[in-house]
Write a structure and sequence with these properties.
Its EC number is 3.2.1.51. There is one protein chain. By secondary structure, the protein is an alpha/beta fold. The termini are far apart.
């Protein structure tokens, strides 16, 4: 009888605890999608045949003898990327011209035919080793378009591409991201290829199940819809994935994601530090400044996306000093700017209601994305108030949702009052993984965050206040 009673108590307590949890709302991110989103910032390395022919898109007719870097050093790439705060590097293992940076058995157009290291070199291998040394993750870009391969435009090419995937996925250690391009033009025989996307996706899932796959529609992460360095004010991670495909001509209709999308496919912002993706000497003085990169960060990571910053490695096989200097300046700005000004000793956070002891106001300031504050279900106008005992000079408010439970917030507003009594209102849409709202720099006295529309019971995991500055220690947001 005692055993039965104890069991009943256990079952009862289990259901009480379970009832205290807020149910997730679909679609939900997978574990690897959550881990990818946490990376926030990593690098793209465009270095290939185009580097030596000084073009953006090669034709596939280039001689392998063109590829001959004089001082290639992947350790330099990794060292700079690490110092810049990047979490990984994605390499262009093969671009549209078909030249492979590793000695593939499935093409004759590769480093094996080049004079570099007498045809014994392997850029992918060297970068994989450098990434391991510096604690970076390795990603692979393998363009499906191939303007060299004689099989392109036939059924055989899909199998060849899959075999090249297998080489890259099995010989170089863990891969965190596999990047497809949507470009699809004619091959050397004048034919276009009908890509076997299910086959390509299955190769990554089989050999690197923890890697996310990027394209216009994922399947795991998606293109943001531009290459200018920003995500949109409204950004849903859910999207109707099966309605689109890589190279979809009306992708603009899907650039914001969809509130009730069928799959979780969060956006990635890809942008180059220079005007071009490949190195061109004439662009040495056109490198984006640290200030510009900081604004890009806020408009990408600060709008529910990850930032993929491209670095065009030069003909020596090195990151140019101008690019490196800008990346270091950007890292310094993040260090100085992304410092939470909300301190328990100088402010008081209040909320309109609290769902229960699991979802309390303390979760808003613990910097833990897995915990959250939630209002009562019957709270028709959930509010978070921040009152400062001493005004704080700032220009950016950051909010996060616990995305493991789904994306919920449809719209919200922020009322800000400065020390001098000046007030202004910010109307905003989605939050997602992270949302940064900028405003004219002022000494802030009070902040009210009003949650207006939501798909399900709202949850906020973190709130932070920043003063984002320029290289001159001035506000970037006036």
């Amino acid at each position: 009888m005692r055993i039965i009673l104890l069991s009943a108590v256990y079952v009862c307590s289990f259901f009480v605890a379970f009832s205290q949890q807020i149910s997730p709302i679909s679609p939900l991110p997978s574990k690897k999608q959550i881990q990818w989103q946490a990376l926030e910032y990593y690098g793209f390395v465009h270095f290939n045949m185009n580097t030596f022919t000084n073009v953006e898109w090669g034709e596939g007719k280039e001689s392998p003898s063109n590829f001959n870097p004089t001082a290639l050093d992947c350790r330099q790439w990794a060292r700079i990327a690490k110092a810049a705060g990047m979490k990984g590097l994605i390499l262009t293992a093969k671009h549209h011209d078909g030249f492979a940076l590793y000695p593939s058995k499935f093409t004759t157009h590769s480093v094996a035919k080049s004079p570099w290291k007498n045809g014994k070199g392997d850029v992918v291998k060297e970068l994989a080793q450098a990434c391991r040394e510096y604690g970076l993750k390795l990603g692979i870009y393998l363009s499906p378009w191939d303007r060299f391969h004689p099989a392109y435009g036939t059924d055989d090419y899909n199998k060849i591409y899959a075999e090249m995937q297998k080489e890259l996925l099995t010989q170089y250690g863990p891969i965190f991201e596999f990047w497809y391009d949507g470009a699809n033009g004619e091959g050397p025989n004048g034919k276009k290829q009908v890509y076997d996307w299910p086959l390509f996706h299955s190769m990554v899932n089989k050999y690197q199940p923890n890697a996310v796959q990027f394209s216009d529609n994922g399947p795991d992460i998606r293109w943001v819809g531009n290459e200018r360095g920003y995500n949109y004010e409204t950004s849903w991670s859910p999207i109707n994935r099966d309605e689109i495909y890589p190279g979809y001509p009306q992708f603009d209709r899907y650039k914001n994601g969809q509130e009730n999308g069928s799959h979780w496919v969060a956006p990635e912002v890809d942008v180059s530090i220079r005007p071009g993706w490949y190195y061109h000497p004439k662009e040495d003085n056109k490198v984006k400044s640290p200030d510009s990169l900081m604004k890009i960060y806020v408009a990408s990571v600060g709008r529910n996306a990850n930032l993929l910053l491209n670095i065009p490695v030069d003909t020596r096989g090195l990151i140019h000093p101008n690019d490196s200097a800008s990346m270091m300046g950007f890292a310094e700005l993040r260090k100085k700017s992304l410092f939470n000004l909300l301190k328990p000793s100088s402010n008081k956070i209040q909320v309109s209601s609290t769902f229960n002891s699991t979802y309390t106001v303390k979760n808003l300031s613990d910097q833990d994305v897995s915990s959250a504050w939630a209002p009562q279900v019957n709270d028709s106008k959930p509010i978070v108030k921040i009152n400062f005992t001493q005004s704080v000079l700032s220009n950016t408010l950051m909010l996060q949702e616990p995305i493991a439970l789904g994306q919920r917030i449809k719209s919200f507003s922020v009322e800000i009052e400065a020390e001098n009594g000046e007030k202004w209102l910010i109307k905003a849409k989605t939050i997602g993984n992270k949302r940064m709202l900028t405003f004219p720099e002022r000494k802030v006295k009070h902040i009210r965050i009003i949650l207006e529309e939501y798909r399900a019971q709202p949850l906020i995991s973190n709130v932070a206040l920043y003063r984002i500055i320029s290289t001159r220690n001035e506000s970037l947001y006036h």
